[in-house]
From TrEMBL:
Organism of provenance: Paramoeba aestuarina
Biological process per Gene Ontology, one example term: signal transduction
Keyword field contains Mitochondrion: no
Superkingdom as given in the UniProt entry: Eukaryota
Transferase in keyword set: no
UniProt GO MF annotations: GTP binding; GTPase activity
Extent of Basic residues compositional bias: 1-12
Alphabetical UniProt keywords: GTP-binding, Nucleotide-binding
Record InterPro entries: P-loop_NTPase, Small_GTP-bd, Small_GTPase, Small_GTPase_Ras-type
Cellular component terms per the entry's GO annotation: membrane
Protein name: Uncharacterized protein
Any Pfam family: Ras
Gene3D superfamilies for the chain: P-loop containing nucleotide triphosphate hydrolases
Length: 209
């Protein structure tokens, strides 16, 4: 396999005619999941609005994008991680320094859900066990354009996410369905629900013990 070295891609500003004096807030996100589930395709669709139709195994790609979400400016620093197990030590570093995590699987691949997602979730919780801060997790079922080949039902994924205390979304990098919502809702989830008045009603925020 051809391996790509670490890249950082800085995209143009996106102000959406928002208030010019709004303070920018930088948020680090990590996209996790098994190989070939569409982590890079989702990230590049969100950043550049193009579909990445060739699978090129990632070691690490870093992307930055400025967005306006609910009249607040955020700079999103998105890490697209390797799916292969030999890079698990590298993932440890990403997880340690981040507070927002997408667990991505492909709805047409049973192993990506039943094995890879659970492995990544265990990795997050192991690393964050001694972290005094809050962090957010979202389960993402990608490739819903392959509905006819679906192996993981929506109900099953929703039940798993609910049992673990985080939300579930379905997306398609090919059609762009749910992609922006995935990233924007993650920001809202951590940004808004970690205020003290909201913590009691935020089961999808994992508090370290």
């Amino acid at each position: 396999k051809r391996k790509r070295k670490r890249k950082e891609r800085k995209m143009g500003r996106q102000n959406n005619n928002g208030p010019s004096n709004t303070l920018e807030e930088e948020l680090k996100m990590v996209v996790l999941g098994g190989g070939g589930v569409g982590k890079s395709a989702l990230t590049i669709r969100f950043i550049q609005n193009i579909f990445l139709d060739e699978y090129d195994p990632t070691i690490e790609d870093s992307y930055r994008k400025q967005v306006m979400i609910d009249d607040r400016v955020h700079v999103l620093d998105i890490l697209d991680t390797a799916g292969e197990e030999e890079f698990s030590a590298m993932r440890d570093q990403y997880i340690s320094s981040s507070k927002m995590f997408f667990l991505v699987f492909s709805i047409d691949c049973e192993m990506s859900f039943s094995s890879d997602v659970k492995d990544r979730l265990a990795q997050i919780r192991r690393i964050k066990e001694d972290d005094p801060g809050d962090y957010a997790i979202m389960l993402v079922g990608n490739k819903i354009d392959l509905e006819k080949d679906r192996k993981v039902t929506r109900q099953r994924a929703e039940e798993f996410a609910e049992s673990e205390g985080f939300p579930y979304m379905e997306t398609s990098a090919l059609t762009n369905e749910g992609v922006e919502e995935m990233f924007f809702d993650m920001v809202r989830m951590l940004r808004d629900e970690t205020h003290p008045q909201n913590l009691a009603k935020a089961p999808n925020i994992k508090r370290a013990h």
